[in-house]
Amino acid sequence: MENVQVRRDFIAGTRRLENYFWSILLFFGGIGFIAKGLIDLLAARSEQFTQPVVMIFYGYIALCLCIYLVCSIVWNVGSGYNEFNKQTKEMKLVRWGFPGKYRRVVVTVPFQELQEVSIQSQTFGLQPNSISISCKNGQKLPILQTNLTLGQLEYYATQIAYYLQLPLKDTTLI
């Protein structure tokens, strides 16, 4: 590995293909539920009043979730970078959040506070595999959480551990 003084790894946020898919699906599904509910409600069938109201409610909830997801995509929530600087001997984690006072979150940790690089992987379940760095005070800082294969995850964690001269710990949950 080359002698690089500053290593910067970029982290993808919410601008992923599956989020675009879900926002489009929620939009058209919500519009469909609202339209069907309004048509049934305006058809003046007095014996079926609650079903159209419930369908309109479900459509409204779907549109609210769609708006939330589109805002997350536009603001690219969760994106950022991990910077490992050998000159200043610091690790800097930068992430973007929702607009407001704490839109940009920056965590800076000196190298001497870092203890180990750990991989958390699951053979089943919905939680994605992740890489975190443990500090001497017991705090775990997540540096990568994505749906990479286990081989890709191990390769990335090995590179980080080698660069920082830290031990690598593998935690596999069965």
From TrEMBL:
<dbReference type="InterPro" id="IPR003359">
    <property type="entry name" value="PSI_Ycf4_assembly"/>
</dbReference>
<dbReference type="Pfam" id="PF02392">
    <property type="entry name" value="Ycf4"/>
</dbReference>
<keyword id="KW-0934">Plastid</keyword>
<comment type="similarity">
    <text>Belongs to the Ycf4 family.</text>
</comment>
<keyword id="KW-0602">Photosynthesis</keyword>
<dbReference type="GO" id="GO:0015979">
    <property type="term" value="P:photosynthesis"/>
</dbReference>
<keyword id="KW-0812">Transmembrane</keyword>
<comment type="function">
    <text>Seems to be required for the assembly of the photosystem I complex.</text>
</comment>
<protein>
    <recommendedName>
        <fullName>Photosystem I assembly protein Ycf4</fullName>
    </recommendedName>
</protein>
<keyword id="KW-0472">Membrane</keyword>
<feature type="transmembrane region" description="Helical">
    <location>
        <begin position="55"/>
        <end position="75"/>
    </location>
</feature>
<keyword id="KW-1133">Transmembrane helix</keyword>
<feature type="transmembrane region" description="Helical">
    <location>
        <begin position="20"/>
        <end position="43"/>
    </location>
</feature>
<dbReference type="GO" id="GO:0009522">
    <property type="term" value="C:photosystem I"/>
</dbReference>
<keyword id="KW-0150">Chloroplast</keyword>
